[in-house]
Amino acid sequence: MREVTTTERAGRIQIHGVSKRFGSQQVLKDIDLTIEPGQVTVILGPSGSGKSTLLRTINHLEKIDSGHITIDGEYVGYRRKGDVLYELKESEILKRRTDVGFVFQNFNLFPHLTAIENIVEAPVAQKLWSKTSARAQALKLLDRVGLADKADAYPRQLSGGQQQRVAIARALALSPKVLLFDEPTSALDPELVGEVLDVIKGLARLGVTLVVVTHEIGFARELADHVVFLCEGQLIEQGPPAQIFGQPSHPRTIAFLGKVL
Amino acid sequence: MSVLKANAVSVDTLSYTASISPATPTCGAPIPLRIVDVRHPGRWLGSAFAVAVLLGVAHSLATNPRWEWGVFAQWFFAPSVLKGLGQTLLLTIFSTLASIVLGTAIALARLSKSPLLSSLAWVYIWFFRSIPTLLVLIILYNFAYLYDQISLGIPFTDVVFAQWSTVDVLSQFTVAVLGLSLMQAAYAAEIIRGGIIGVDPGQHEAAAALGLSVRRRIFRIILPQALRSILPTGFNEVIGLVKGTSIVYVLALPELFYTVQVIYNRTQAVIPLLVVATVWYLIITTVLTTLQYYIERHFARGAQRLVPLTPMQRMRVWLRGQTHA
Lengths: 261, 325
What we know:
Helices cover 35% and strands 26% of the residues of chain A. Chain A is α/β, with parallel strands linked by helices.
């Protein structure tokens, strides 16, 4: 079996037979999923269905027990030699992670650094930006999320929505091929959800592959190219939003959508 | 009777609602009501007591001739006392620096995923927290009895790069610094570990997700945040160490306390010389406490929406208010 990677646009994620258990609990069961480059994929499912875990395996924040994940043909967290996958050294994992941005539910901004310092930290550490041009580059990103005037504010001086927008700018700073969003609006006041979703919508037009775990059905319906439904660690249904929301086939999907729509 | 009472209540309620009703429709319209703060007679009593205590102490210090303030003044800046003070400061500085470095290493080892390394760190902490400082110092001082040579080489082979005589290496001062550092490191390690554990695990994850190296994650992201909780207890330890250095008098090392003892054994002016030492210890602690305030303030960046003013800034604001008024 050879990986074929003949995509012009980068950021194709392939998940093959991925399983994961925490102690006695099976959180992911034999997941197979292909995410096309530049597309917006929304992962839906009841809480505890393994959505976040699946997302975290894509940048090796969570190790998997079996199966494998590739991004543009490169194994996430492993190097393949023959039929054996060797786990990468920490430094190599870190290097590959720069291709994959992650936006957390609780933002996880570094509270002791200002907004702009949060953004500059990683690209300067990895020598993607020079120290002299870093500020200008970071300001451009802050401007894109509409926060150029908050460059020198500390996270705690910002609203939740603003913090999440800074976190998105921080993830963008490494020019990732893939951006993963783990319930990016769940910790926000309803009033602030819109501003974050608007920023994500803007990104969808840039051609970055977006994978979003969310409960915002309206957002999924409007923006997703592909919707995946997880339940009890299993991928039970996937397809374009029109199909999933219009004619869901699995009884569990129908029950879930009946509650949230 | 009961009817009367009920009437009274209803009248009361009526007048109450009548008096506030004009305020309810307009939001924040000014009603000139006088505000009277609650009085605190207890506070006045407490203040009077404090004044009495302060006056009493001051009066007794000033009038009791046995304090011998003349002798105090004579010895306070005496060269031998200053030299002892210097030794105390050097002991504190070296032991603090060494214990921070060693303590950080032990804390990280304790948090390591290697069970052996983590156990080794645990054993170190267990051992040095179990035995008195005095014992460590005396054992180290007699180290030459156990090992008369100290050599640097490859273990289990005959390869030796350098060799020293233990007696030469372990002078009083080296033994003192070594003993104090080894002890302090055990406590420092636990304080630092506590600080690191206290940082939100999401911070580790976010830093890892951004591809930051382990080193950078620890020194740029985790430790600066951990320092906020490490500093107060850390300074406690340093201040404890300043006074703890007095224990090395058992090695006849002429630090502040030992020097003072030597002098009063000769001059018999016990109290004034103990006061000399007391005042110097007070001064060191005051400087350290001030330092602590500013360092903590520095690391509070981002923790509060507004950084509190320093006492100097507060005084300037107050003075400006006074001059304008």
